[in-house]
């Protein structure tokens, strides 16, 4: 209980390789109210699900949480990723369907053979074909499915060319498989995109996970119910959202490669970073992801070098982190990592009390490694590592979770200093510089690929080793940086605060306005049916002309943040100051658009800027959309903004789009448009034709009252 009112708490549980962390977050205040940790239960008969339940019970007890206070439970899972990496997947039987020439195609493209998942890991598949020229013979289909099961298949896939348009045959095969008691996947049930080979591969990966993931889901759901908690149970997706447990039972492939997603979700929802580089630092590696205008960058997932119809965060992983082991060549510190204290079987110097007299020596962490890694010898045993975590302690960068034993750290780095002929401080500084030198080029490439300047984003560190990597890396790039609150449990916080998300994709050669509206509606309804408050649901529609693909991504929250926000909000002057910092202008230049009580307001700053080496000056109007908490949700260097009643918005938008449409090499180029409603930001930048843009804008405006004020942010392209 809090202030005489029942608390509303979200529980997030992050399953890591070593530990499972559970946290409780107060929805109203977005504050951490409790945390617990248990060893990840890889060897338990219930697998990692046992650790999920154990951590939850410990959290409820230690934080004095009553079951009725919990409004949502979400957990990440490494099972899908680990199963793929280790080849611990079920054999899959593929029943291909086809008629005439399409039958020949199905025989060729749906026969997967042995699928390489990674080094030493494969997925076995069996194959049968059924001619459906005269329709689906269900008796023959049943016989072929039984043959696949007899051949060792534990899960099944139904695959037919163009089933995204005519899914009836695939759905019938899945129904027959269910009657046989075997889990099955229809390729059309996972994606609506053309491409039978990729669709079949994605479905086979999904089917291979079904037995173990369904078992885990059932065990976890049963344990949650037995605890007296009636809140919905959610699972982390690979694209940074969460989905309900029923969706996970059908599509476990969507949790694949979701390891870094939880931390990124926390950067968005807890740290409220709209434009930044999030670096999650563990003991062995660091994961790097770019966030722009409140959304992480996304890419297609790959397995064994082959793309899947699964979207995952565009995360770059670097083999340096808080526990990385330094290397010495020719008497000088030359590198750090990729081996870590954990992999080398060494203890951290920083977390060992009374380390005492030690000697820094070179060694091989593994037989295949060079003998230039450095460790600490105490007596006759090589037992401890010298780490970036220790270096950050020595230099006064570590606080809280990362803070270790000062005397032990001093002893370790004096020993390292003797080995390389420097002071302890110089050795620590050099070690952190070497770590930054491995991370910084990856960040630079990521920014360059997405055409983002370093001074436009902030670097945010998460994970227990953040202080050992982020400060030096950010400084070397000239970037601002911060360490996330409760960085050591940032992923669990991200799981708790993850937004409900789903996407719909179609292969459409020339999408009409009605096509786009239908896809938008389907994405909206999927997230609404998972429990999202309709007022929070935002749908982003984008068209990929090269791939001839349309994608609608919907996201929403079970609670409306604007209603749940506790305490006083920043005033207009404070929001103006936040916008001025984002736009890099004086606050006196900033003008505000939109009603004062709106959740979202737009700020502009028309001024003259020098061009051509300062020879000339031109007028620019940068714009920023800022929410009621002072978080910049969108910004652009130049735009035209107009605030109008909703009843006039569509006509005004048509005028502005016509004015700022230009000719490019490929024809007409329409401007990017952000539609700022009182409580939602609608991104229309992914559209390529005026009728499409106006149709979706009309659909978004339909829910508003005629007098509601809307701000149109129009950004010319090119």
How does this model look, in words?
With 718 residues, the chain is of the alpha+beta class. Among the domains are: 91-206, Rossmann fold, CATH 3.40.50; 324-423, no CATH class; 499-562; 569-715, no CATH class. Helices cover 33% and strands 31% of the residues. It is built from 20 helices and 41 strands. Strand 6 and strand 7 (121-123) form a beta hairpin. The longest helix has 31 residues, at 196-226. Residues 560-566 have low confidence and may be disordered.
Q: How many angstroms does the end-to-end distance come to?
A: 55 Å
Number of strands: 41
Task: State the shape.
Answer: globular
Strand order of the largest sheet: 3-2-1-4-11-12
Q: Topology of this protein?
A:
Blueprint: E1 9-15, E2 19-26, E3 31-39, H1 48-62, E4 70-75, H2 79-86, E5 92-98, H3 101-109, E6 115-118, E7 121-123, E8 125-131, H4 138-150, E9 155-159, H5 168-179, E10 184-186, H6 187-190, H7 196-226, E11 233-236, E12 242-244, H8 245-250, H9 261-269, E13 276-281, E14 286-292, E15 295-296, E16 298-303, E17 306-313, E18 315-318, E19 324-329, E20 332-340, H10 341-344, E21 347-348, E22 359-363, E23 373-378, E24 381-385, H11 388-394, H12 406-420, H13 424-449, E25 458-462, H14 466-477, E26 480-483, H15 490-497, E27 500-507, H16 513-529, E28 538-544, E29 549-556, H17 561-564, H18 572-583, E30 591-593, E31 600-604, E32 607-611, E33 616-620, E34 623-627, E35 632-636, E36 640-645, H19 646-660, E37 662-664, E38 667-669, E39 672-676, E40 681-683, H20 690-701, E41 709-715
Parallel strand pairs: 1-4, 4-11, 5-8, 5-9, 9-10, 13-25, 21-24, 25-26
Antiparallel strand pairs: 1-2, 2-3, 6-7, 11-12, 13-14, 14-15, 14-18, 16-17, 19-20, 22-23, 23-24, 27-29, 28-29, 30-31, 31-34, 32-33, 34-35, 36-41, 37-38, 39-40, 39-41
Helix pairs in contact: 1-7, 4-5, 9-15, 11-12, 11-13, 12-13, 13-14, 16-20, 19-20
